[in-house]
Amino acid sequence: MPEFWENWKPTERATLCFVIRGGEILLILKKRGLGAGKINGPGGRIEPGESAREAAIRETQEELGVTPVGVEERGQLHFQFADGYALHCTVFVASDCIGEPVETDEAVPRWTSLNSIPFAEMWADDIHWLPGVIDGRTFRGFFHFDGEQMLTNDVFWS
After folding, report:
1. Is the pLDDT of residue 110 over 90?
2. How confident is the model at residue 40 (pLDDT cuts 50, 70, 90)?
3. DSSP string, the chain
4. Residues of 18-56 as b/e, b for ≥16 C-beta within 10 angstroms?
5. What pLDDT digit, counting tens, does each position of 116-138 carry?
6. Residues 111, 51: Cα–Cα separation, whole Å
7. What is the mean pLDDT of the chain?
8. Among candidates 55, 59, 21, 23, which has minimal Cα distance to 40?
9. What is the pLDDT of residue 12?
């Protein structure tokens, strides 16, 4: 693992929340911000005074108009970008959601079969950890990017 992780500090903290039910996962087509045009899970920045879990629920409500339930933490993502941006992201899964997902200014909802997740349309790191999360595992991932190109990846399962 690259040495810079030893003293790494994030520029921002964020969350992702994946609703998984009935053989499907709720993904989004992100319409703006970091990762616009990519498929991802709902999520975003943690606001001051807010826990990561609270942020994951709020961001899912804001982006898709649904409230995730049965929310469990599954992992920690550490991203270092070549331009200096450093992002820490807490990953959650939910067993269901209240309401039906709707398109918003931020996202287009996509219920997707667990057997056909479009990894080619997602961030390059997702294929290294999302399948394990779907299988119920927990992890810590460290990823170095230059723009959208992944330079290094290290995933540790627990």
Report:
1. yes
2. very high
3. --GGGTT---SEEEEEEEEEETTEEEEEEE-SSTTTTSEE-SEEEPPTT--HHHHHHHHHHHHHS-EEES-EEEEEEEEEETTS-EEEEEEEEESEEES-----SSEEEEEEETT---GGGS-TTHHHHHHHHHTT--EEEEEEEETTEEEEEEEEE-
4. bbbeeeebbbbbbeeebeeebbbbbbbebeeeeebbebb
5. 999 999 999 999 999 999 999 99
6. 27
7. 97
8. 59
9. 97
What is the torsional sign of CA 127, 95, 26, 79?
negative
| CA–CA gap between residue 110 and residue 158 (Å, rounded) | 29
C-alpha span between 108 and 98 (Å, rounded):
17
Q: What contacts 133, CB < 8 A, 6 or more positions away?
A: 18, 74, 75, 91, 93, 139
